Amino acid sequence: MAKDRDEILVVGEVVEVFPSATFKIQIDEKHHVIAVPAGRLRQSNIRIVAGDMVRVALSPYDLTRGRITWRVNGSRAPR
């Protein structure tokens, strides 16, 4: 699978958890994104709960939906 070079990476906080592994992410004070975990997170059984900081990959075509690519630990920031 080819890597998307057009994706926009942002860091936000999970504010709400919906059924079927869908999350509402707050990017800044005004902007929210609906995101799902990437396949690697699902395969590794990484748990994401409200209050977690996550890195989200957004498509430039739809900035309201994204893919969670990384859960940020307190001491380990995403690159």
From TrEMBL:
Pfam families (alphabetical):
eIF-1a
Its predominant location is cytoplasm
Among the GO molecular function terms of this UniProt record, one is:
rRNA binding
Q: What domain of life does the native source organism fall in? A: Bacteria
Q: Which residues form a coiled coil?
A: none
InterPro entries in UniProt: NA-bd_OB-fold, RNA-binding_domain_S1_IF1, TIF_IF1
Q: Which residues form the S1-like domain?
A: 1-73
Q: Which UniProt keywords apply?
A: Cytoplasm, Initiation factor, Protein biosynthesis, RNA-binding, rRNA-binding
Q: One GO cellular component from the entry?
A: cytosol
The entry's localization annotation reads:
Cytoplasm
Xref: SUPFAM superfamilies: Nucleic acid-binding proteins
Task: Please give the family membership noted in the entry.
Answer: Belongs to the IF-1 family.
The subunit field of the Swiss-Prot or TrEMBL record says: Component of the 30S ribosomal translation pre-initiation complex which assembles on the 30S ribosome in the order IF-2 and IF-3, IF-1 and N-formylmethionyl-tRNA(fMet); mRNA recruitment can occur at any time during PIC assembly.
* Job of this protein: One of the essential components for the initiation of protein synthesis. Stabilizes the binding of IF-2 and IF-3 on the 30S subunit to which N-formylmethionyl-tRNA(fMet) subsequently binds. Helps modulate mRNA selection, yielding the 30S pre-initiation complex (PIC). Upon addition of the 50S ribosomal subunit IF-1, IF-2 and IF-3 are released leaving the mature 70S translation initiation complex.
Report the HAMAP family cross-referenced here.
IF_1
Which NCBIfam families does its entry note?
Answer: infA
Name used for this protein in its record: Translation initiation factor IF-1
What species is this protein from?
A: Ktedonospora formicarum
Q: What is the taxonomic lineage of the source species?
A: Bacteria, Bacillati, Chloroflexota, Ktedonobacteria, Ktedonobacterales
